[in-house]
Design goal:
mainly beta; six-stranded mixed β-sheet; four-stranded antiparallel β-sheet; 10 strands; 49% strand; globular
Length: 113
């Protein structure tokens, strides 16, 4: 399975960050394969953002839940992260990954005016 994050590298404060994870080598609707978003901010550890299951059920980090939405497009075999009302503290490398499996290479997102 291979995953590739796609999206803008620069987002302005208060805007919505939108990233897409393009999956190859497996169907995102395959039984028992679940998918997640993680980020790592400068000088900080990894932070779990949320997940979407093979059946489309979503789970979110309590600290980000009010601003986060994860969705999927099974026809394109990809899933998407939206993070609303971003601040500079949302600057991080964002990763998509298989739950307990491979990760994408990550994409740097900077929140700055």
């Amino acid at each position: 399975v291979q995953l590739q994050e796609s999206g803008p590298g620069l987002v302005k404060p208060s805007q919505t960050l939108s990233l897409t994870c393009i999956v190859s080598g497996a169907s995102i609707a395959s039984n028992d394969i679940n998918w997640r978003w993680i980020r790592q901010s400068p000088g900080k550890g990894l932070e779990w953002i949320g997940a979407i299951t093979f059946s489309g059920i979503t789970y979110y980090s309590p600290s980000l839940k009010s601003r986060t939405s994860i969705s999927r497009d099974t026809s394109k075999n990809q899933f998407t992260l939206q993070l609303k009302s971003v601040t500079p503290e949302d600057t991080a490398v964002y990763y998509c990954a298989v739950l307990s499996g491979p990760w994408g290479q990550g994409t740097q997102v900077t929140v700055s005016s």
